[in-house]
Amino acid sequence: MAPPKFKDLGKKPNDIILDDSKYESKCEVKTAAKGLNLTSCFTREDTKGIKGSLEAKGKLADFDITTNLKDDSTLTVSVENTTLVQGLKLKVDTAPVTLAIQKVSFEYKHDLAFLTGLYDHSAKDGPKVDLSAAFAGNGFSGGISASKVDPKNLGSAKPEFALQYDASDYTLHAFCKESGKNAGGSAMYKVNSDTTVAVKVAQKEAKLDIALGGTYSVDTDTDVSVTVSQDRMLRALIESKISPALKIKGSAMLNADKMSGHKWGLEMLYSL
């Protein structure tokens, strides 16, 4: 079995801890017709206003073509191929108006390794390179990654390391970033078929962060997750499948120290 991508190492416990939760209002509608998949999306986060996008995906010969139009009139076209070499996916993002290549990326998936790479020519402060490699064996997965590296100054790279162990009912994860200034670990344990708990401990620049969380499956269509951290932040997420076509997510972050700083979000995902 192939290892996960480097960025997905630790994803199981981190999802329960609600590390990557977004507190925004979102409405997404998907539909498909004659081989073309359309996705329209509107989001609103805090005071940033409403943002919208329209995405169309189709296939031309051995290539997957994706066009994305945003509300600021930015149009990008992505061309993806997965047939040149088994396990290899190549992707090119272009700006049709200027005929400029913005990004070139690859993923290579093997039973023992998962390699990724990205060359971003559209970065505001000059071209940047992302590289990662993950390996697996005997229940262990580990890897190394370097992000936003200046290709003219490879010595500026700050590698990240991660190690994960997966068993049938638990997962252990450890990471190290910024030459050890940001390091920690997390663990997930499946109590039973309905309940899973997790803990995360991390240290960043001499500050220790601890978070405890759990997920409970109310029924086959509804999950509830709650997390509390030492900085007295309470996070909650409810996901419910209302119908085969409609899924609702409600999220909240409450600051127990003061009456301000609270956040909430509501997402509606609809497939026609």
Structure overview:
3% of the residues lie in helices and 64% in strands. The chain is built from one helix and 19 strands. It has a 19-stranded mixed barrel. The two termini are 34 Å apart. The model has no long low-confidence stretch (mean pLDDT 92).
SSE inventory with pairings:
Blueprint: H1 11-17, E1 25-33, E2 36-44, E3 50-60, E4 63-70, E5 75-81, E6 88-95, E7 100-109, E8 113-120, E9 128-137, E10 140-149, E11 160-166, E12 170-177, E13 182-190, E14 195-204, E15 207-219, E16 222-229, E17 233-241, E18 246-255, E19 263-271
The fraction of residues in strands falls at over 45%
Shape by Cα distribution: globular
What proportion of the residues is helical, as a percent range? Answer: under 10%
Cα-to-Cα separation, first versus last residue:
34 Å
Q: What's the story with the biggest beta sheet?
A: 19 strands, mixed, barrel
Average pLDDT rating: 92
Low-confidence stretches: none
The radius of gyration over CA amounts to 21 Å
Q: What is the number of strand segments?
A: 19
Strand and helix order: HEEEEEEEEEEEEEEEEEEE
What structural class is derived from the secondary structure elements? mainly beta
Number of helices: 1
